[in-house]
Design goal:
Elements (H helix, E strand, L loop, with lengths): L1 H32 L3 H19 L9 H34 L1 H7 L4 H31 L7 H24 L2 H18 L11 H8 L3 H13 L6 H23 L3
Length: 259
């Protein structure tokens, strides 16, 4: 019994170290694999954020402070959704088609390391677009944007949630269905979700529906984190956490599934 008590903690440390080594190797591999795609996508993300902040503002005659906050935080949220729920699943779907995912599954690395390595890479890809979007919002509207631990936690949590949802879609659906689902998410998020405009403009049934989907709560959390409007986000955090946990579990189970 004494030997077991001494060896169990000793074995746990190498396992954790092995997981970190595997994860870091996968991060480097993914960065190398996408070394040409990531800079191009970062530029597109920056243009996308600026287009929402400046372009959509042209469609509103008088942009007050509330509208400016919605447009600004909406640009950052949609950028995160575009990375996690559109680009990442399409790349994963391509990896499935090309057999790269099957090759990764044969490597002596944990399945969780595969998921979290890609989550880190796509989160890094979204950060420059978010930063440029914040700069554009400050220059266009002169908003007081708060950047603190709550803001960082909100952005990282939103990125993890979006990537988890995207990977769950890509790993469980065939390629054609994945492309359709990602486009529906992006169009729905841009046009029909109260992310860039207040929810009061939608019918009551639509407002209720969006309260239990992940994207509007993500936008509300990011807006509160960056502008400190004083609105409670407890329900939104619970909804987002539930979606993140369920999506990550679904993606993890898909990776563990045998053909």
């Amino acid at each position: 019994m004494a030997v077991d008590a001494l060896t169990t903690p000793t074995l746990a440390v190498p396992r954790k170290r092995a997981w970190l080594v595997s994860w870091w190797g996968l991060v480097r591999w993914s960065l190398t694999r996408h070394k040409y795609l990531l800079p191009a996508f970062t530029a597109v993300q920056a243009l996308f954020a600026v287009a929402i902040v400046y372009g959509l503002a042209l469609m509103i005659p008088d942009v007050d402070q509330e509208a400016a906050r919605y447009l600004s935080s909406g640009a950052w949220t949609l950028g995160i959704i575009a990375v996690g729920c559109v680009l990442a699943p399409q790349i994963m779907s391509t990896s499935k088609q090309e057999g790269l995912l099957d090759y990764q599954k044969t490597l002596p690395v944990p399945r969780s390391a595969i998921l979290l390595a890609d989550a880190v890479v796509w989160s890094l890809a979204a950060l420059p677009g978010i930063a440029i979007g914040m700069l554009a919002a400050f220059l266009r509207f002169g908003l007081d944007i708060h950047i603190d631990l709550f803001t960082i936690a909100a952005i990282l949590g939103a990125q993890f949630t979006a990537v988890s949802i995207g990977y769950a879609i890509a790993l469980w659906l065939p390629t054609g269905a994945t492309s359709l689902a990602t486009q529906v998410i992006m169009i729905g998020g841009l046009l029909f979700s109260p992310i860039t405009f207040p929810a009061e403009r939608l019918p009551e049934w639509a407002v209720t529906l969006h309260q239990f989907l992940p994207f509007t709560p993500l936008g509300d959390i990011i807006r509160e984190a960056t502008f400190h409007a004083g609105e409670s986000q407890v329900l939104n955090i619970i909804v987002v956490a539930a979606w993140a946990g369920a999506a990550y579990l679904a993606a993890y189970l898909a990776l563990r599934k045998r053909r």
